[in-house]
Amino acid sequence: MDNSKETKKIVSACFAGIECRYDGRANRVTKIQEMIKKGEAIPVCPEQLGGLSTPRLPAQIVGGSGEDVLDGKAKVIDQAGNDVTEAFIRGAEQALQMAKLTGATEAILKERSPSCGSCVIYDGTFEGTKKAGQGVTTALLKRHGIRVKSEEEL
To answer: Are 99 and 146 in contact (CB under 8 A)?
Structure first.
C-alpha cells in the first residue's frame, strides 16, 4: 500500500477502541479506526507509554498547561494528590519518538486530556472546570513541528 501522498498521523489510542483511558474505557471514533486500518495512522497512548496503569486515577495539570509542565513550571497531579509529572513527560517523549519513527507530521489527539488536549484542558481543581491550554504530549509534539488537532476538528 502506497501512502506517500497521505500524511502519516499518530492518534490517541482510545480512538482506535483501545481501552486505555484513565477509567479503562475507549473513545471509539469510526473515522480514525478506518485511518488506522488503511495504515494512515498509528495509535499511541502517552499515559500508558509513560508507565501509568489502566485504569488509573484522573490527573490534571496544576499551575499551568503542558508547555509549563515541560518547562518545569507546572505539575501533573492525580486526584489523590500524587505527582505523576514524570510519567506524563516520559509518555510525551515516547509519543514523539513514535511520530519520528513513523514519519508522522500530524497528530489527532483527545481534547481535554492532560496529555493530549490540543486547545482545552481541565483547570487542575478536579471540579470539571475547563480552561484554554494544551496537554503535555501536545506541547512536546508542537515544539517539534508536528501539527496537532483534536477529534472535534475531523
So the answer is: yes
